[in-house]
Design a protein that fits this description.
Number of strands: 17
Oligomer: single chain
Distance between the termini: 76 Å
Order of helices and strands: HHEEEEEHEEHHEEEEEEEEHEE
Radius of gyration: 54 Å
Largest sheet: 6 strands, antiparallel, barrel
Structural class: alpha+beta
Number of domains: 3
Shape: rod-shaped
């Protein structure tokens, strides 16, 4: 029996059969491939999350004062040591009053020193009078020594001639009788007195000389030491209360302005917040459970979360030693969710352009041992 020719079928029949038998399989395979591609390219399991380290520096005032000038605005680029503003630490009237107080204190000190000089001058005069008195007494004693020596010799001569018996002698006054022993005793007493007065005169002369060298013998109308002390105090006050210039500690951007010109400042209160232009580190967190703790020998695959995803390999700089709180925005939109993880420091790859504060996903690649 001859084979019959195939019955021609309409094109719609083939399309119907394809939709029923083959299209589901093709769609299934395409979905699987798309899911695999999206998972490998755009989706990262949030086991290790990270944030590009954002550095913020607060420029503060170390003294109470007033912000009189601010030369930058928010988001301005600044260079290191660039003047950003000026702070005055004291009101001009207060400054003038402080100078007057210093001058009055020094004048009071000068007046007290003047009184001390008057007392010293009085003591100096008393010492000179005492010195003159002792010199006169010394001269009298020396004259009396000569008289006592003559009297002793005369008495001894009378005794030798046996004009008078030993022990008594007729003195210049007929009513006074002196013995040899009494004359000897008077002479020795006068000699001791001369020695003592000589020592006392030498001590008085040294004291007078020391007071003359110290300036106690005269009173100057002004004291140069007091004038120098006033000038030193004024210079110190001027340096202490001079305007303080705010300078940028490094190249960066003004992130926030906390105070405006004319506002009062309290010690330790921030004026500006400065941030660097870039960052060189990523702070990553390994979420719990910790299956393995990485080392500095391991590397990390860094993936940005931007629309044009960047992927690069970076090295681990340091590994933390305790669990720390993870920024809730890194792992969930629920800001009330708190979770702790192991922190690690990762170097920013050179070929990646990441902004400080940007979130990234990390994948640890354990090195082969």
């Amino acid at each position: 029996m001859d084979s019959l020719p195939p019955i021609p079928a309409p094109r719609g029949h083939f399309l119907r059969e394809f939709r029923i038998q083959s299209l589901p399989l093709v769609v299934f395979v395409a979905v699987v491939v798309a899911i695999f591609y999206i998972w490998r390219t755009y989706v990262q399991p949030l086991h290790v999350v990270g944030e590009v380290e954002a550095i913020r520096s607060n420029l503060i005032s170390i003294q109470d004062g007033t912000l009189v000038e601010l030369r930058v605005d928010r988001f301005d680029q600044v260079a290191k040591d660039q003047p950003l503003g000026r702070i005055t630490t004291i009101d001009p009237a207060t400054h003038e009053a402080s100078l007057r107080v210093i001058e009055k204190d020094m004048k009071l000190m000068q007046a007290r020193m003047g009184l001390d000089k008057v007392r010293n001058l009085d003591s100096f005069s008393r010492l000179r009078i005492e010195l003159l008195t002792e010199r006169i007494a010394l001269g009298i004693a020396q004259a009396r020594v000569k008289q006592a020596e003559s009297e002793l010799q005369r008495t001894k001569r009378l005794v030798e001639l046996k004009i008078i018996p030993y022990g008594v002698a007729q003195g210049p006054n007929q009513n006074n009788i002196f013995g040899v022993e009494v004359a000897q005793r008077d002479l020795e007493a006068l000699q001791v007195e001369i020695v003592q007065r000589t020592k006392l005169i030498a001590e008085l002369e040294q004291q007078i000389k020391a007071m003359e060298q110290a300036g106690a013998a005269q009173i100057a109308p002004t004291d140069p030491a007091v004038d120098e002390a006033i000038r030193a105090q004024q210079e110190q006050l001027a340096l202490t209360e001079k305007d303080v210039v705010l300078k940028a500690p490094y190249d960066g951007t003004v992130s926030l302005i906390c105070k405006r010109p004319g506002e009062k400042l309290t010690r330790g209160e921030p004026i500006l917040v400065l941030s660097p232009s870039g960052s060189s580190r990523i702070v990553g967190y390994i979420r719990q459970p910790l299956t393995a703790i990485p080392t500095t020998n391991d590397t990390v695959q860094v993936k940005s979360r931007s629309q044009h995803r960047q992927i690069a390999i970076a090295r681990i700089l340091k590994v933390g030693t305790q669990l720390e709180l993870i920024n809730p925005a890194l792992i969930s939109l629920d800001s009330n969710r708190l979770e702790f993880g192991l922190p690690i420091l990762v170097a920013v790859p050179e070929n990646m352009h990441l902004m400080p504060g940007e979130f990234v996903d990390l994948a640890i690649q354990v090195s082969a041992k």
